[in-house]
Amino acid sequence: xxxxxxxxxxxxxxxxxxxxxxxxxxxxxxxxxxxxxxxxxxxxxxxxxxxxxxxxxxxxxxxxxxxxxxxxxxxxxxxxxxxxxxxxxxxxxxxxxxxxxxxxxxxxxxxxxxxxxxxxxxxxxxxxxxxxxxxx
Length: 136
What we know:
By secondary structure, the protein is of the alpha+beta class. It has one domain: Nucleoside Triphosphate Pyrophosphohydrolase, CATH 3.90.79. Helix content is 24%, strand content 32%. It contains three helices and seven strands. It is globular. Residues 4-135 form the Nudix hydrolase domain. GO terms for molecular function: hydrolase activity.
């Protein structure tokens, strides 16, 4: 997916077995206001999918991941265009390094199964989490 066209990326970031989740802003002008989101966002300046998800993760939660830590990649379509979904697993002590950015209301850790079944989770990310869990 490195050289393909895509609109944005998302990351299922597991910290010690729990999924890092961001509560979206409660602004009616954004998609899925007040829903449970995952790190990621839109592509900038022709960057690769991996570079996009790594940059967005750093901006949103302060964590700098390496490409080698991305253990899963899957493309899927959305009305805004093709998207790329990644997964990464970090040790539990990484939680101390999280620095929440300026997008969203806050962050939390939850089991991936709880996220996949949560009524406030963004539906297409619930689907991607379920697909990833089924691939393991």
